[in-house]
Design goal:
The chain is of the alpha/beta class. It is built from nine helices and six strands, in the order βαααααβαβαβαβαβ. It has two domains: 138 residues, 3-Layer(aba) Sandwich (Rossmann fold), CATH 3.40.50; 66 residues. It is 42% helix and 15% strand. The chain has a six-stranded parallel β-sheet, sandwiched between helices. The N and C termini lie close together (5 Å).
Length: 212
């Protein structure tokens, strides 16, 4: 077995929320009288930390505007949370990986209580050995959470692979010293992800063959 632990990103990798996030950012842009973005544009400008994405897309200009905008964004997300679903192949993929005897966890830049609630809401908690989130809603970085996990878990870094949909997931994996596989149907386009130089797949089910 190539890997014994799969660490999943959540939003855009497990949960199909890209269109919802585009809808929300366009509401915020329209409220300021600004031009909305297409899906293609969104997937080419989205980035972490989120404050830099907000500046890039144009909903804030100064750092001090970020906290208020983050709360407005989150309120709109909560209003739509009940409409979200996982990608169609997620449950079957998680089940296949579990049957292979590979442990799994979620590592997200979402606040831990919100992450736990959504993991339960989408019925993926039964597959997860660890749920790892941050302490606030500002989606700065999940690197420190990942590093703490590595330190406390005792897992061999070579046995862990990160599955994500953004350059940030690759950067987190790199700083953790673990492998990374990127899925191209999430928050960043395949053209953006290609700069990472790691394996890119089009769906979660394509990940399984790369694990064994």
């Amino acid at each position: 077995m190539r890997y014994s632990y799969v660490l999943w990103d959540f939003n855009g990798t497990i949960v199909d929320d890209v269109d919802t996030c585009i809808e929300i950012i366009n509401i915020l842009l329209q409220q300021q009288g600004k031009e909305i973005v297409s899906k293609e544009q969104y997937r080419n400008v989205f980035m972490f930390p989120v404050i830099e994405y907000y500046k890039r897309v144009g909903v804030i200009k100064r750092d001090e505007e970020f906290v208020e905008m983050a709360h407005r964004w989150m309120d709109l997300y909560y209003e739509r949370e009940a409409t979200l679903t996982t990608f169609h192949d997620i449950h079957s993929t998680l089940e296949k990986i579990k049957k292979l005897g590979i442990k799994q966890g979620v590592l997200s830049a979402s606040r831990i209580d919100q992450l736990q609630r959504m993991v339960d809401q989408f019925g993926v908690g039964m597959y997860m050995d660890d749920i790892l989130g941050i302490s606030d809603i500002y989606a700065t970085s999940k690197v420190h959470i990942g590093l703490e996990f590595i330190e406390k878990s005792g897992y061999d870094k070579a046995s862990i692979v990160m599955i994500g949909d953004t350059i940030h997931d690759f950067e987190v994996a790199k700083q953790m010293g673990i492998a990374c596989i990127l899925v191209s149907r999430g928050h960043q386009s395949i053209e953006v992800l290609a700069s990472c130089g790691v394996s890119i797949v089009s769906s979660a089910e394509d990940v399984v063959s790369l694990l064994v």
